[in-house]
Amino acid sequence: MQRIEHHASHGGWQDVWRHESTVLGCTMNVGVYLPPQSANRPCPVLYWLSGLTCTEQNFITKANAQRYAAEHGVIVIAPDTSPRGDQVPDAEGYDLGKGAGFYLDATQAPWSAHYRMHDYVVNELPALVAAHFPATDARAISGHSMGGHGALVAALRNPGRYRSVSAFSPIVAPSQVPWGRKAFAAYLGDDESQWNAWDACELVATARERLPLRIDQGGDDEFFDTQLQSGRLLAACDAVDHPIDLRIRPGYDHSYYFISSFIGEHFIFHMRQLNQAR
Ligand SMILES: N[C@@H](CCC(=O)N[C@@H](CS)C(=O)NCC(=O)O)C(=O)O
């Protein structure tokens, strides 16, 4: 692990670390915010997964999350959105390949060698965090758009791993919308029965855990109707009595202006679970 950025922020430190990922077979950057409280005691951890075209930089420079992480005493881990490097396959377009890992474990060549973002986020990163930072094992997960899909799927596939899950403008039914269908066909192949294991609306139907779930969606988001369709998750949750708190925010678009406006509420939501003694 090599620290490549170190910035004082809200009494703590916004760092970026570079490390060799065994799971992804490449060098990765990851944003790590250490709140002031972490100088004296271990802190819980919030994982943030960004959307299409993003790196570890978008969330740490645009969401203003450090202010809330410092207030609540939580470490924030913000990884990149795909494997990187010359040896990693890529595709034309912003919605497949680099910057578009979709937080799944690919099964199809040429993607399967490196595109294992689910395993990376759910297993390798937490082990790295435990080894290098003053973290407790209380975890929450959140994300935006493709990263909202990633957060929902990570939580739904791994009962017990996270205490709460939230998302901004998530792709809730990737099997049904153009971004998801393009990515899943490439990464998982044409047999659509294999896609269900990576689709939040399908996973919620068989979920064993009733994890607190919070979603904010901009009412003027340009991708709301075509790609995101949060109403589908509301229906899937209602069908099985899974808790969901979905808030449509009139006037807000898909950007980080939206995320930075409501990220403080997501910290309050997650801290309610993370601060409970177990
Ligand atoms: N570039 C695409 C959309 C990409 C996009 O909106 N990406 C979102 C996540 S899905 C994002 O966070 N972009 C980076 C940013 O706003 O900092 C387009 O213009 O259609």
UniProtKB/TrEMBL annotation:
UniProt keyword rRNA processing present: no
One Pfam family from the record: Esterase
Reaction equations catalysed: S-formylglutathione + H2O = formate + glutathione + H(+)
NCBIfam families: fghA_ester_D
Name of the gene encoding the protein in the UniProt record: fghA
Protein's name in the database: S-formylglutathione hydrolase
Entry keyword set: Hydrolase, Serine esterase
SUPFAM superfamilies named in the record: alpha/beta-Hydrolases
Family annotation (InterPro entries): AB_hydrolase_fold, Esterase-like, S-formylglutathione_hydrol
Biological source species: Lysobacter brunescens
Chain ranges passing through the membrane: none
Similarity comment: Belongs to the esterase D family.
GO molecular function: S-formylglutathione hydrolase activity
Top EC class of this enzyme: hydrolase
Role: Serine hydrolase involved in the detoxification of formaldehyde.
Assigned EC number: 3.1.2.12
